[in-house]
Every structure is written in C-alpha cells, then in structure tokens.
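Troubleshooting log. The previous run stalled partway through. Resubmitting the same two chains, unchanged.
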Amino acid sequence: VAVSDVTSLWPLAAVALPALAVPLILASGARPNRREAWTMLAALGTFLVVALLVRSTATHTTGLGSVVGVEFALRADAAGLLFALLASTLWIATSVYSVGYMRGLDEHDQTRYFAAFAASIAATMGVAFAANLLTLFVFYELLTLATYPLVAHSGTAEARAAGRKYLAYTLGGGVLAFAGILLVGVLADTVAFEAGGVAGLATADPTLARAAFGLLVAGFGVKAAVMPLHGWLPAAMVAPTPVSGLLHAVAVVKSGAFAVTRSVLYVFGPETASDLGVASALAVAAAVTMVLAGVVGLRQDSLKRGLAYSTVSQLSYIVLGVALLTPLAMFGALLHVVAHAFMKITLFFVAGVVYVETGEKYVSDLGGVAARLPATMTAFAVAAAGLVGFPLVAGFVSKYHLVLGAATGPDAAFVAAFLLAGLLKLLYFWPVVYAAFHGRRGGDDPASRHAFAPPHLADGGLVAPPTHDDSGVGDSTDGSDAAGEDATGVRHGSGWERRTPRTEASPLVLGPVLFTVGMAVALGVAPTLFPFWELAELAVAEVFG
Amino acid sequence: MTTLAGALTLAPPWAAFLVAAVVVLLVGRRVGQAVAAVLTALTVPWILLAAPGEYLVVAPLGFEQTLYRVDGFTRFVTAVFGFVASVAMVYGAATGLDRRATAYALTYAGASVAAVLAGDWLTLLMAWELMAVTATVLVWHHGGDAVRPAFRYAVYHLVSGVFLSAAVALQYAALGTFDYDAGLLTGPPLVLAVAGVGVNLGFVGLHFWIPDTYPRPHVASSVVLAAFTTKVAVYVLARVAPEGSLVVAWLGGAMVLYGVTQAVLQTEMRRLLSYHIVSQVGYMVVALGVASAAGVAGAFAHLGAHVLYKGLLFVVAGVVVYRTGEESLKRLGGLGRRMPLTFGAFLVAALAITGVPGFSGFVSKGLVTKAVESGAPDLLWWALVAGSVGTALSFAKFGYYAFVRAAPDEVPLRPGTPTMALAMLALAGPSVLFGLSPGLLLGAVPGDPGSFEPYATSELLKAAATTLAGVLAFVALRGALATVPPVDVDRVLHPAAKGLAQSASKAAIAVGETGERGVDRSLVALAPLLGPRDVSTVSTVGTTLLVLAGGLGLALLLAVLA
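Second attempt completed without errors. Output:
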C-alpha cells in the first residue's frame, strides 16, 4: 500500500489549467467559438493531467508555500484522484452540453457563465487535492464564490434570493468548519490529512475532540446537504441546468461529502471516530436525511426540484457509508460518489434537454413526452433505474456495497435505511417514467399523472414559495401550446410530435446524455474495468490498513 | 463427461433468450418469433444434457458469482421453463404479439431462467430484480389501463427485492460468502427472505399483484407472466428454506383456500385463472413447508404440472378473448360447439388442474397430499382437500358458462389459426402424458417420491370424491354465487399505502419547513455581510468574480514563490 510521495507540479497543473482558462474565456467574450475552444482545451487538458496522475505509481505533491506559519499543499492521493478524475471527466461532457444548452436557449451573459464554470472546476480540483484541512477550506470557499454567479445567473428575483440563500448557507457552514479546523490544529498540532486519522486526536480531550468533529461535520455537511442544512440545494435549482448537473449533483455537493470523508477518515480516523461515539450520531443524521428527503421528494412536481431532493438523499448514502466506519461501507461510499455522479448528471441533462426542446419543467406537463424525445427519455429511465438500485446500472454496485457495509457494521438497522431510501426512489421515479412513456400531454388519466406529486405544487421545502410566473414557458398545459401543436398538423396519441433519436435534439446536448448514461451502465456491468475501482480500493486500504 | 455435456456448460441457456430477443427486434415479427420459439426450445435438451456442476464463475462486481449451476433442481425447472417459453412464442405469433412485447417477454423469461440457474445469492438477487423490471416493462408496453397496475406490480416486487436484499446482506455479514450451501441462516436472514419470496409467491395479503396485473396485458403476455415469477419464487423457497417450516406450510394452506375462494367468485376468465395461481402455488408452498423428500418431489412435480396446465388455461382463455373479444364469463356461452378444439384443450387443462386420474395434476397433487398426510397436522390435509373441491367447482363454473350453456347473445367469432391449435396441443400433450405415465414426471424431479403409488385405490377414491363434490357444489350454488361480489385486500391495502406515502410526505415537508425556518433565521444575521439586498445581480456577480480572480491569483502566486 505504501506508495512513495514525489514532489511535482502536476497536482498544481490540474488546478491551474481551469484557472488559467478563466481570463482567456473572459477575454474572448466577443468570439463565442474561440471562447468555447478555451473551455474545451482546458477541460481536455485538466482531464489529461488527472489521467497522468492516476497512471503514475507515485503520489504527487505540490507545496504551495506557507503563510504565517501555515502550510498550504496539494497531494494527489487515491481518494483525491477519484474525485478529480470524476469531476474532470464530467467537465468535458458538461462543456459540450453547456454549449448546446446555452446557445439553444440563447442565454444572456454566456461569457460570465463559462468563466465562472471554469473557476468552479479549478476550485473543485483544489478541494480534491488539498493535502490538509486549511488548503481544503480555502478551495472550498473559493468554490462557493465561483458558483454564486452561476446560481444567480438568470438575475430574476427568485434567482437572486436563491443565490443569497446559497451564500448564506455555505459561507455560514464555512465559518463552522473554520472553527473546527482551528480546534483540530490546537488539539493535534497538525491539520494535515493522514489516512486512518491523525494520532494527536486519539489522545486529545474527548469533549473538545467531539466539538471539533461536530463543527467540521456540520460545516462541511452544509454542502453535503445533510438535513436540516439542505435548504439551499432545492432553491439553487433556479440555476441553468448544466450547473445543476455538474455542480449541484457532482462538484459542489460532492466536495461537501468529500470534505466530510476527509474529516472523518483522514483527520479523526475510524478508530478515534468510533471511540468518541461521534460517527454514530452522523450516521443517524444521514440515515434520517436519506429517508426524509426521499419522502419530501415524492411531492415535487418540478422535475429539477425532485432531482434535487433525490440528490439530498443520495448524498447521505455517501455520508452514511463514511460514518459506518467499515471498509466495505467506505468502498461503497466512494463508488457511490462516482455512480451517483453519472446517473444524476444524466437525469439533469435530460431535464435540460426537455426544457430546451419543449419548454416544460413540471412532471405534470410531461405526459407522453417520450414520443418527442425517445432516446432522451430512455436514458432517463435507465439512470432512474440505477438510482433506485436495479442491477446492471452503476447504482446497484455501489448501493449493494453500502448495504453489505451496513450489515457488517455496528448496527444492521442501517441496512433498512438504505433499502427504504431505494424504495422511495422507485415511488418517485417510476411515475415520471410511465407518464413520459405512456401518458398523454395534458392528460387527466392515471397513466399521465404522477402517483404522488400534485400538479404544479412546486414548493416542498422553501420557506417562501418562489414566484411561478416562469415567463409562461412552464404553463403550457392549458391551451396555448396545444393549439401550436395543432398548427403543425402533427397529432398522435401522446399529444406530442413524434420524432426519432436522430431528430429529437441537438447532438451537442444528446451526445453528453448518451455518454453519461452509457458510463452509468458500463459502471454497472463491469465496474472493475474503470480506474475508479482501483482508486477506491487503494483509498480503503490506506485508511483501514 | 462427454464432450457434448461439457460444451453445453460453456454458456448458460438464458443466453439463448437474450439472443432471441435481439433477433426479434432486428428481423420481422413472424421470422423473429419462429427463431425465438426454436431458440427457447433448445433450452430443454441444453439443460438436460449439460453436465452437473458450477460454471461461469466470475467476479464483475468484486464478489465471486456463479452464473450457471446445473443440479437436480435447476435442471427440472429450467427445462419446464424453456418448453413453456417456446410454446408462448408460438402462441404470441398466433395472436399477433408485437415485436417489442415479444422482446420484452423474452428478456423477462431469460431473467427468470437466470434466477434459476444462479449459483449464489448475489446472482439470484440480481436476476430477481431484473425479473421485476422486465415484467413491469412488459405490462407497461400494453399501455392504457395496464400502466398503473404495472406500477403497483413494480412496487410489490421492489418490496420483495428489499427483503431479499436485506436477507442476503445479513447472510453475507455472518458468513462472508454468497454461497448457497444449506439455505439461509435461521433468524433474521431466513425470516426476511421468506417475507421477500412470499411477495412473489403470493402469500395471502401480499398476493394482490397477481390478479391485478395478469389479466390486463396482451393475452400472450399473460401466458408468459403466469409461467415464471411465482414458480421462480417456489424454486427459491426451496433454496432459502431447505429444512422447511410448519409456519410456511400453514401460509401455503391459507393460499390454497383463499385463492380458490376468490377464484370461485370471479367472472372474468383471466382473473379467475390468476387467483388459481395463488391457490395452486399454495400446494407447492405447503409441500416445501413439510420439506420431506416426498414433499420436495411433490412441490416440484406440481410446479412442472402447473406451469403446463396453467399455461394451457391462459392460452385457452386467450383464444376465447382473441376470437370473441369478451373477457367476462357473463357474456359468453355455447362455445363448446363453435370452438370444439379449444373446448377439448380446456377440458384437458381443467381435468389436470382438478386432479382427475389420467392427467398430470392427479399425480402431482396426489404426491403433495400424500406428503402432507405423514408430515403435517390433519387440518392442513383437509385444507388441501377443500382446495381441490373448490378447484373442481370453479372449473365447472368456467366450463359451464363459457362452453356448455346456451349463449346469452351469439357473439361473432374471429377465425382461429393452426398456430393457435399447435400451441394448445403442445401444452395439452404433456398434461396427458404425465398423467398416464407418472414415472416420466416423478423420475425427473428433485427429492424422492418414495413409495408413492399414484394409481392406488385410495388415491382414485379421493380424486373421485373431491371432483364429484366440486361439481355438485357448483350445481347447488350456481345461482347463489352470481350474487356475491368479489372483494379483495386491495380495497384497504392500496388506499392505505398511498395515504401513508402522501401523509408522511406532507408531514415531512411541514417538519422540514419548520426546521429550515430556524436555520434561515439564524442565517439572517449573516445576510448584511453579503451586501445590501437591493443591489443589482450584475454588480454582486462582478464583485464575486473579482474576489475570485484575486483569490486564485494569490494561490498561484504563492505556488510560484514557494
């Protein structure tokens, strides 16, 4: 297991490449094609750098110097590489998709959008490779700032409210985490990550150590959307869909889950966390979140909000996997970081394709939409099956490792939490699937209706319901759109124009959908063939020895 | 080991089902279904000639898994499945099952065969879940009023999968292996597994998905659905609890009586047959609960006989639906004269399920009853006998209303086809053959029939008495039966489940909002730090970008200096 460390600039390169793209993108604002070329080049470059690091037999580190005696450093260990490889792979797919999406909707301020996106990826790479808590904290906060313009992109009152809420939650969490970091520094004399935990914490005062754990986990738990700290995530769904896809299903939320993983397994370590009794409290919170978010999600008619609650629930799969402190559960948690990313980004991409192609964003308006978008909705069905935990899709592999980890863990009751959460996913997703394939547009029959979500009850977790005058595009059930459909002279049983996969959507948006869903299936059939598997094994071996 | 026996272990027979599914999608419907009928029929010699052992041991998910296990249990069940799948393809061709539905049906049947041939709990679990998905898609494909029942079907079967998942996980946690060995450990694994398998078996209370879904899709899809899910569950019950259990036997006895009672009250043909699945599977569950060598043999003999005659009954009902366009016995009549071949096929199947000497059900049900006689309380034996009387009654009713009595209105008939006749003959053949030479059936099943003599005088007397009692009961109760409306657990169960999901969800949202308000309020203090509320987005965003660029620049500068 002991891989030797070498000093190199490669980890820094992974952070610097997307960061360098930011000024270049801003400077090419007048020439969209050149601007997008910078994004693509940076995405491919970042991926190549991370791929090189994955292939390397040594663990690469870059020192970033010290400020007032505090060391900043990057270290590309197995867990960090897993996260970085995932984010950089999906950045490529999302960049292609973003071009199709933003141009398809003729969105304003595209330059700002692509610049902020690149900045977010730079910060994500920093989170992945941070060698200690302070470095992690800096990049974690930079990620918050970089994603704010993306959340508030549309500039409407709703978007700005969501943006403020997002900042308030995540920066507030940051304050807690920072307090926790200082406390760890005082107790252990170091804030560096060490697989299996820092020795100093095992002998520290238990009450203070518990407090440090609580502060770290609560602080980082905001981005991991552990209830009741999850409120920002459904609100942030006002962002453009590629943002919801890559950042709010993968990069941002997983940097929260990743920071929790680092805190529990690389700062406290399984033994100390177990001795202090703090891990079981985290496990209970995660188990409750898993189930409650699934239940709340049932009532969401807005497709993206439904997906957001599903994300809240799935993130807690990861947090619970970490908190169970068994090798199998940790392995399952790391696999689930990857599996959930490919499945959930597929679902968000699909939601975006539906919005770009039809203007609809509520489940109750999607009856029969599979006639219009056959390949897109098939991808949705496959990814949804994976999230439920059906075999041959990535979700089964990770979820079953988590279930086995829970069965071998301290309390077998957590097995029930995982399985119940899976059942709730079926109750939410299958009605979306059958309505899309077998419903009729605007139909009132049971086949066109979600079994649980009342139509256009968009609010399910916000304090103040957002204003729903979504510039008219969302409310097309009652007449106006149907009339347009008549004008084209095409009417089928579904109420949608029938299209084939060749003509249903731009290849720029359909291509990424097919790539991510293909990966989700490949990871479900032969997960061991992908480097994620080995990286997860390595990380588990490091932590549990 | 001959080379052939070895060669047949290189790939599992379910591969043939998947190849057939692809072929059907690529070539025309007719050719595709013909190829599928041949490929699925190949399963029978394939599994019967393959050398016993465990093959295709792989570890795609990090655990050792056996995809292809050949032993006495898997051989018999797979051969029966292959035969009935092939006939179902012929029948699908005859009744115009479309290409996509045919492909879904083949995938579902393939998943069922994969579940049977699995050599460990993990592979079994995966196939089990895939059966649920593929069957749901098959029913969904029919559209219309099949869509919501198919959703309920998916929920029932995911619940079943949840219990089985938990059982297998606990087994793994205790033993560190997914190997079959001697069934699941007594305690939570066994209880959870029996509950999970119980959903698929149709334990009373968990059974409603059977009459809810099976009557709805295309008639050929019904034949396919009726053949596999419950029978795979019977096979898995034998794996899960090889030692049996009196509790399981009693649960089976309840299925026998409840299923047959509901069946007697039904007027829709395919619904009546669906309730008979509950009842007939009950016989198998009772026998596996007893779990003596004779019990196991009886359960599997009854499984084989049942798949064949119940398949034939669904085929017959489908032919009636196809040719008359009517589902309800209330509007049928006089078909015996107008559809003599179909009537003949019905008689064979009805006599087989009733257990009349000379037909397969007589042999298999006789063995089950015999095993119960020596291994379980008397009351259970009487439950089986009462079930037989009810079965005779309900098929007297089916036959009378559909074929014998004068029709209330003469419905016009679509012409039958030779392919339909072929499907009926193919299923009727073994039902008679196994009745006339019981050794063929009893020699093929796992377990040991022991000294069982199907044609002993006591057996003949018992069969005659129950059949006669059933027919007489029908004559006496015919008028009264028509006045009793059938009511099942769905009236309570489904609204309760939906209400629970919705009220839990509403409550969770309310609790969440309260909690969130608290968090929000504590964060209000932070809000002024983020700048005045009415500032334009553009300038906030501009500031943010500046801060961001500065931060990143600083980080890079530090890196270069260091």
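Takeaways: Chain B has 22 helices and two strands. Residues 534-539 of chain B have pLDDT under 50 and may be disordered.
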